[in-house]
């Protein structure tokens, strides 16, 4: 009797699993253009190189286009790291969720994806940045310079300039009213200034 009950439960779980797999299979995949896919492939290679250099086992976070309102209405290339992988990302240590604009250009993709990867290597998952979001963003932006050098092969000065230029574009987007400006304690302007100070640059939000 007990054995039959277990068998029925196992059969029920198997059915649920098959339904879930069917739903995943029916989901419409994002179709990237060849240049967009090349940028994601470049990230995969760069991510693997970065993780090897830091003796971190396993693959890098996956990249996927999100439907979040914050991303779709950002008015600029944007993305964020989450330690929660989706159904189709089994075995990945989370995801870098982006909008389509984030892979529209080589340098933009490098800036956004290296920032997301930096959050992962710094261990910014599990809600650890909930009460210190601004500090985590600055830490990841600074670390992304090293990752751009290690994974993408950029020179130091080019990596710094790339992330500075991206941050400046965010500040300008806020000034144009294309996205929220953040809190007085944080926000993209302060992030730009702190990033610039770390690399002994003159950072202006004008």
Care to give the gist of this entry?
The protein is 57% helix and 6% strand. It is mostly helical and 206 residues long.
Notes on the protein architecture:
The longest helix is centred in the N-terminal third of the chain and has 25 residues, at 2-26. The chain has seven helices and three strands. α2 packs parallel to α4 (106-121), α5 (133-152) packs across α7 (187-198) and α6 (156-175) packs antiparallel against α7. The protein is globular, with a radius of gyration of 20 Å. It is mostly helical and 206 residues long. The protein is 57% helix and 6% strand. It has helices at 2-26, 34-53, 69-72, 106-121, 133-152, 156-175, 187-198; strands at residues 62-65, 79-82, 95-98. A three-stranded mixed sheet has the order 1-3-2, with helices on one face. Residues 1-27 have low confidence and may be disordered.
